[in-house]
Amino acid sequence: MTTEVSFAEAVAQRAGCSAAEAVSVLAEHSVPTAASAAKPHRLRVTRLVFSGEKSGVDEGPFVFEQDFGDGLWALVSERNEAGKTSVFEIMVWALRGTPREELQADVRAWAQHVELQGLIDDEPFQVEFDVRDGVPAGLLRCDDGERAFTSHEGFSDVMSSFMLDRLGLATFTNWVKDQGRQTHGWPSYTGGLYLPRESLAVVLGDIAQAGLPGRLLLMFVGVPWAQTLAAAQTAVRAEREGHRKVASAEDALRQRATAELEQLVSRRDDALARLAAAPEIGELLADVDSAAANWMALVSDCARLEEALVAAERNRKFAASAAMGERKRLADLSEARIAQRLFHAMNPTHCPRCSTAIDDDRRATENVTGHCAVCAREIGDAEEVVQVGVVSAAEADEEQYGLDTLEDLLNRLDEEAAVSAERVLSIRAELQQREGDRDAAQRRLEELRAHTSSMEERLRAELEVAQLQARVEQLESLVQMGHARPGEEDRPQVLAVLQAAEVEATERVERGFQTVLDALNREILELGQKFGIDSLQSITINRATHIRVGKGGSVTSFSACTPGERLRLRIAVVIALLRVAAAHGVGRHPGLLLIDSIGAEETESGDLAEFMRHLVEVTDALGIETIVASARTEILDHVPAEHVRVALGREYLW
Question: Residue 474 CA to chain centroid, in angstroms?
């Protein structure tokens, strides 16, 4: 007998890590490391009651009551739309705790009270609830007490936990693209119990996506490690999706960061250019101080020159005035001299005052006495009197000296006036130059002071540059970073462990499935032939429930079969699972089978009769409960009368 290494150790060997690391990763992702034994349990419905009031059609109250048990049971009417499918839908609602979407809205609105009684193995249970405004409220009664519910969610939770526990089933997960991890429980298992007409496209269950039929196949047939495989597959896809989303998010982040980085680099460079063009604050302040000192010195120089100009102008005016006075004085003296000579040379004949005639005697007396012949004033000694128009040498010398002296003084004064005028012109020119320098210095100072108002802007620019540079460095690091998540290097190779778990579980499931595969194919083939599939020669089913059908010398697929053939193959698969599980003492199918619209696709009564005969046979042989619904009354020949509820003519089942 070969001893199988523990699952965790096998995974660790495949992943190249320690068993402890493998156990940690598997536990983190809820991957079971042990295969649980699949002990069969049997579910039976023993009674169904529902009541309410119809509206719109055949208005009025109604009550449906029907007992059930082991063996084959039938709901039959002579026409369609007689309420057969509604009985199944309400029964499934009570068993699942949540109605299927196919339960018609009018039926859901009419139903006001529902009771379902049943057995799991030999333990009875009862579900009872009222419906108010579409919301169920009621109780689940079982051997360990009552469990109440007042909502759809509460009802579903109560029935799921009860059924999974009592039937030895467990929730399982799968991964749906664009939706993520999905957890399946009791409602998904019921897809292997109820075979409605609209689900003919699926071999097992009523959901074809994400490999769910294959999961149900492995669970129902009782293949060891099926639950571990389902969990590992889901964990691998979740981890890959996680990595993909992280990588995608990082790519998107890097793209956004790259675009933002380009903008920030441009803004930073602009800010650096503005900062480079702005003078340094220290240099600017020094320039302001220097310009202010220069301006103040020029202002002082201008004030000094203005004072000097005033003094020079005053001196110039004083010198000019003095020269003018002396020039007038010289002119007066010259004029007096000339007048004196002129008047001395005159010999008037009449008085200039009164016009009295001057006689010769008075003129003779003037010459003798020296008294003026006109006014009788003494004009000099007689001996000093000269001839008219003649000046003495001494007098002439004296007059000449006085004139020379005045002319010398006048020349000096003119020189001083000229010097003062030149001084004024010089000072005025220098003042004009200094005033120009002063005004230029003032403009420079105002410009520098205007620059000082931009000091705050420079500080803001420096701060902006620093902030932009920090953000640029951060984005550069982000753009260059790898796909690794923070802390990933400190963890074991999670995906490698999960992939190793998937491979190990797949191999173990495959080995387990191979032990029952031949028997399963034989059972499906035998049942398909008994159920009347013409020319059926071979059946091959794989773990994904893909069926290859050999008939009439060719091989085709399940989906290529007729609707009637697909229904019979679905029934054959479920019963084959039950038969194989029973033969191996394993399996998890509850053993309740609800089949809608039996015979809807049949055209020959003989084919339907053969099908019903064998359905009764396998139902009894397995000791299970099968309830069928049909609008073909000929099936009544194959069902015990006490197991039939029939509506004849235009009647309704309820």
Answer: 18
Q: How far is the C-alpha of 405 from the C-alpha of 159, rounded, in Å? A: 150
Q: What is residue 386's predicted lDDT score, i.e. its pLDDT?
A: 42
Mean pLDDT confidence for 401-421:
77
Q: Identify the CA nearest to 576 among candidates 532, 625, 526, 616.
A: 526
For 82-127, the pLDDT digits (tens) are 889 999 999 999 999 999 988 888 888 899 999 999 999 999 999 9
3-state SS assignment for residue 102: coil
Instruction: Look up tokens 């620093």; give the residue.
Output: 466
Q: How confident is the model at residue 611 (pLDDT cuts 50, 70, 90)?
A: confident
Query: Given this model, what pLDDT does residue 272 score?
Result: 83
For 276-311, the DSSP string reads HHSPPHHHHHHHHHHHHHHHHHHHHHHHHHHHHHHH
DSSP string, 360-410: HHHHHHHHHH-B-TTT--B-S-TTT--STT---HHHHHHHHHHHHHHHHHH
The helix/strand/coil state of 79 is coil
Give 297's contacts (C-beta < 8 A, 6+ positions apart). none
Pick from 188, 185, 161, 160: nearest CA to 171: 185
Q: Residue 69: is its pLDDT beyond 90?
A: yes
* Cα dihedral 506→508→513→515 (10° resolution): 150
Distance CA 549, CA 547 (A): 6
Q: What is the mean pLDDT of residues 191-203?
A: 83
Per the CB < 8 A criterion, the answer to whether 519 and 541 are in contact is no
Residues 6+ apart with CB under 8 A from 127: 94, 95, 114, 115, 116, 117, 138, 139, 140, 141, 159
- Measured in whole angstroms, the distance separating CA 589 from the mean position of its chain's CA atoms is 48
Question: What is the predicted pLDDT for the residue at 456?
Answer: 65
Q: Kindly state the tokens that stand for 203.
A: 């071999």
3-state secondary structure of 67: strand
* Per-residue three-class SS string for 246-270: HHHHHHHHHHHHHHHHHHHHHHHHH
Set out the domains of the chain in order of their start, with CATH numbers: 7-247+493-647 (3.40.50.300), 281-346+388-453 (1.10.287), 350-385 (no CATH)
Residue 192 DSSP label: G
Residue 235, Cβ density class (10 Å: 0-12 exposed, 13-18 middle, ≥19 buried): buried
pLDDT tens digits, residue range 486-506?
445 545 588 899 999 999 999
- Cα–Cα distance, 194 to 625 (Å, whole number): 12
φ, ψ dihedrals at 117, nearest 5°:
-115, 145
Question: Residue 572 in 3-state DSSP?
Answer: helix
Angle, CA of 334, 337 and 340, to the nearest 5°:
150
CB 347 within 8 Å of CB 362: no
- Say if CB 594 and CB 615 are below 8 A apart: no
pTM for the complete prediction? 0.65
Cα–Cα distance, 404 to 649 (Å, whole number): 173
Of the candidates 245, 274, 139, which has an alpha carbon nearest to the alpha carbon of residue 483? 245
Asked if 498 and 233 touch (Cβ cutoff 8 Å), the reply is no
- pLDDT at residue number 379: 64
Strand partners of residue 538: 550
Task: Report the alpha-carbon distance of residue 49 to residue 151 in Å, rounded.
Answer: 20
Can you tell me the distance from the alpha carbon of 17 to that of 471, in angstroms, rounded to the nearest whole number?
40
Tell me the H-state helices in 531-601. Answer: 563-584
